[in-house]
Amino acid sequence: MHFPLVSAWNKRRRSKSYDTDPWVYRAAECWQINDQAPSQPRKRRYGSSVYTLKEMEEATSFFSDENLLGKGGFGRVYKGTLKTGEVVAIKKMDLPPFKKADGEREFRVEVDILSRLDHPNLVSLIGYCADGKQRFLVYEYMQNGNLQDHLTGIKEAKISWPVRLRIALGAAKGLAYLHSSSAVGIPIVHRDFKSTNVLLDSNYNAKISDFGLAKLMPEGKETCVTARVLGTFGYFDPEYTSTGKLTLQSDIYAFGVVLLELLTGRRAVDLTQGPNEQNLVLQVRNILNDRKKLRKVIDPELPRNSYSMEAIAMFADLASRCIRIESSERPSVMDCVKELQLIIYTNSKGGLGGTIPTFRRL
Ligand SMILES: Nc1ncnc2c1ncn2[C@@H]1O[C@H](COP(=O)(O)OP(=O)(O)OP(=O)(O)O)[C@@H](O)[C@H]1O
Ligand SMILES: [Mg+2]
């Protein structure tokens, strides 16, 4: 990307309003600002605004520590308030020289893909800033942060079982939208689905974030061979890591790992544990269909009256199928959506207060 072209494009975008056809898709690798028809981005709920570095600094009080929401592999995320008064989350991409190319690619993929998506279970990209060497992504602000913090007790109280089920269903619906062709005409593999990329709004609705590693499946194909295996330890599809073949089912494996985190309240990988207890999948894989042993791994902080054992067994069974080694044996995302709806119904029937509460803390 040539920066003068970016700023020229930014200026053009600022001075026009677009409400015509969606963009014609071009692979992120071919994303060239100068030949991308800038007059035709899809009109989105927010529109992808372009910001200056000054606007980013003002929004976050110069990236003050008080506004720091969290830190990830590609930078820090700050809470910010735009001139319009809108509260947002601003990811300041941190690109040390050895990660520069990867970071730049993630930035472009995220802007390119997320700008085209619009679903209640996906975090919205409000805009971005590409100013000199600085890169920022501006997202809708998710008041309750990431799911992992709520499961591992970093937040003050753990979330209840019915809310966990609702989060699992929301995340599955977000993935279903990506995997269907409804988003950009061809399916999208997220490739970095994990509990820190499931964010929660003020009502604990789940929204998937971080599309920097997302991959559009080649048209008509179910497998995409990649040169490098990308993702996060603990969530890697074993078939993808051993063959480099990426499929939609790679996301299902990661989804299964998140189901296990919801069930057990443990991390996918916990390096503070002994060598045999660090990997959640290896630890629980063989007991998911054994009710007696299953009871022992249910998050001990879930009150016994918040779940029915029937619903737990169905949930564990779904998780066990999602994490199968053979990707063809895993359920599709639509199967996951349907099964989770049934599990929610089963749990509510078990004398647990009828319909799922909008939000209930333990
Ligand atoms: N839109 C948002 N609203 C509120 N908090 C957010 C938002 N996006 C990210 N965060 C917070 O910032 C943290 C860091 O996010 P980031 O995506 O940079 O890293 P990560 O997903 O935790 O890890 P990694 O970079 O390794 O994938 C998140 O865990 C979350 O708590
Ligand atoms: Mg993230």
UniProtKB/TrEMBL annotation:
Binding residue positions for ATP: K92
SUPFAM superfamilies according to UniProt: Protein kinase-like (PK-like)
Gene3D superfamilies: Phosphorylase Kinase, domain 1 (3.30.200.20), Transferase(Phosphotransferase) domain 1 (1.10.510.10)
PROSITE patterns: PROTEIN_KINASE_ATP (PS00107), PROTEIN_KINASE_DOM (PS50011), PROTEIN_KINASE_ST (PS00108)
EC number: 2.7.11.1
Keywords, alphabetical: ATP-binding, Cell membrane, Kinase, Membrane, Nucleotide-binding, Phosphoprotein, Serine/threonine-protein kinase, Transferase
Catalytic activity annotation: L-threonyl-[protein] + ATP = O-phospho-L-threonyl-[protein] + ADP + H(+); L-seryl-[protein] + ATP = O-phospho-L-seryl-[protein] + ADP + H(+)
PANTHER family: OS01G0750732 PROTEIN (PTHR47989), SERINE_THREONINE-PROTEIN KINASE PBL28-RELATED (PTHR47989:SF47)
Protein's name according to its UniProt entry: non-specific serine/threonine protein kinase
